[in-house]
């Protein structure tokens, strides 16, 4: 019989947090200096912050009894992962024994953190705070390693390497949830459900992400193409939202909208444009991408999620594969096709195909390998994984007042 209360994390969580923050402080004190940034980056910094903290924070609150954990753990993981990404990114550009940071470097660090938040969506509700922190630290390390490999071996531009975060994060998360699968849970968890209140807060997170995605896609683009990136992203998001609503009604046995399926699909257009942004020039191309991505995401959510659970014992809580992984791969394929279409030299075209496929191969290999290593580390009993009856339950991690009225 399972214990009544979840095991305490006092001896694990507090030391890890204090050690990490002390280490970050020492590194910053002796090896980092701050530089002035252009005022222009402040608005972009705010937009990315809203996506990370409010967007993903509210998005993770859809389980009916996991609202505090979904939003609170998201903030904790985001700030730790961003500090770690700042340090690792700074090491790559080490100059004069000092790591120089500014608003742009903080934005780049937050983009790396976003890949970790995507992966956490796959194991949401089935892990504790200590495990989430380990996931974030190891994935940020793997993602920055992948960037370094792409830059060193293939000379991939920062825009193209960073925007592969959706493919990297989704595959990393799938490896986690596949290896950490619980044999007693062939179906959904007992508390893995949503009600009107939790569904509304989760939809609010989706709306934040939807609103700020055009700005997010324009961050790494040069000044001459920012307006084009914003317009194309908005059109893709608009078309994917309309298409997601239509497919949600068509795929429902009762002809009703499924809010969780809608949340999964309406962002797919933005993901696809993010990956293929460097080659998407015309508005009709962005709209076609939004439509195709929404179809793939909606069908994947409705059928692929259950198939993966039954056939491969892979329980993907937030459907990261259909929300980010498949649209990200679609964006990669579109980038390849459009680049081939715009090339007149067959030799250059062949080289680009090989170059493009190698970049994807390296990204997939690093994400799968680091995800597998991280998952086996998390299986260690020392981390005190929550029992099945404590998954998706705030009471396993938070203090609540006694709500029983005494007469």
From TrEMBL:
Spell out the subcellular localization from the entry: Membrane
Where are the membrane-spanning stretches?
12-42, 48-68, 75-94, 106-125, 132-150, 162-180, 200-221, 233-250, 286-304, 316-340, 352-378
Question: What GO molecular function annotation could you give as one example from this UniProt entry?
Answer: ammonium channel activity
- The Ammonium transporter AmtB-like domain is annotated at 36-379
Could you tell me the membrane topology recorded for this protein?
A: Multi-pass membrane protein
Can you supply one Gene Ontology CC term for this chain's record?
A: plasma membrane
Entry superkingdom = Eukaryota
List the keywords (alphabetical).
Answer: Membrane, Transmembrane, Transmembrane helix
**A GO BP entry:** ammonium homeostasis
Function field = Functions as an ammonia transporter. May play a role in the elimination of ammonia in the gill.
Family listed: Belongs to the ammonium transporter (TC 2.A.49) family. Rh subfamily.
Under what name is this protein listed?
Rh blood group, D antigen
Q: Which organism is it from?
A: Cyprinodon variegatus (Sheepshead minnow)
């Amino acid at each position: 019989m399972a214990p009544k209360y979840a095991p305490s994390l006092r001896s694990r969580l507090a030391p890890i947090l204090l050690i990490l923050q002390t280490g970050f402080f020492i590194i910053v004190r002796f090896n980092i200096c701050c530089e002035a940034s252009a005022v222009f980056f402040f608005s972009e910094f705010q937009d990315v912050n809203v996506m990370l903290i409010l967007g993903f924070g509210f998005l993770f609150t859809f389980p009916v009894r996991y609202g505090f954990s979904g939003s609170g753990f998201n903030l904790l993981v985001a700030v730790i992962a961003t500090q770690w990404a700042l340090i690792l990114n700074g090491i790559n550009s080490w100059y004069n024994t000092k790591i120089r940071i500014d608003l742009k470097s903080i934005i780049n660090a937050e983009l790396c953190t976003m890949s970790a938040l995507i992966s956490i969506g796959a194991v949401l509700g089935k892990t504790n705070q200590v495990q989430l922190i380990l996931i974030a630290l190891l994935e940020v390390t793997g993602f920055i390693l992948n960037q370094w490999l792409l830059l060193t071996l293939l000379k991939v531009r920062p825009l193209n390497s960073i925007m592969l975060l959706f493919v990297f994060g989704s595959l990393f998360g799938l490896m986690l949830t596949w290896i950490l699968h619980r044999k007693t849970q062939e179906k959904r968890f007992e508390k893995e459900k949503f009600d009107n209140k939790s569904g509304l807060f989760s939809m609010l997170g989706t709306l934040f992400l939807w609103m700020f995605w055009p700005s997010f896609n324009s961050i790494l683009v040069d000044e001459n193409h920012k307006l084009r990136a914003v317009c194309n992203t908005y059109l893709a998001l608009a078309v994917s939202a309309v298409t997601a609503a239509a497919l949600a009604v068509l795929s429902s046995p009762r002809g009703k909208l499924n809010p969780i399926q809608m949340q999964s699909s309406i962002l797919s257009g933005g993901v696809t444009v993010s990956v293929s942004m460097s080659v998407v020039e015309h508005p009709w191309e962005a709209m076609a991408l939004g439509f195709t991505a929404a179809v793939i995401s909606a069908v994947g959510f409705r059928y692929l999620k259950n198939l993966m659970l039954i056939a491969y014992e892979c329980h993907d809580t937030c459907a990261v594969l259909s929300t980010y992984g498949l649209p990200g791969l679609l964006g990669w394929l579109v980038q390849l096709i459009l680049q081939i279409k715009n090339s007149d030299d067959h030799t250059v075209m062949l080289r680009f195909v090989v170059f493009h496929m190698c970049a994807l191969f390296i990204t997939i290999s690093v994400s799968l390998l680091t995800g597998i290593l991280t998952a086996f580390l998390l299986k260690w009993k020392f981390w005190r994984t929550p029992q099945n009856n404590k998954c998706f339950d705030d009471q396993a991690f938070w203090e609540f007042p006694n709500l029983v009225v005494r007469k």
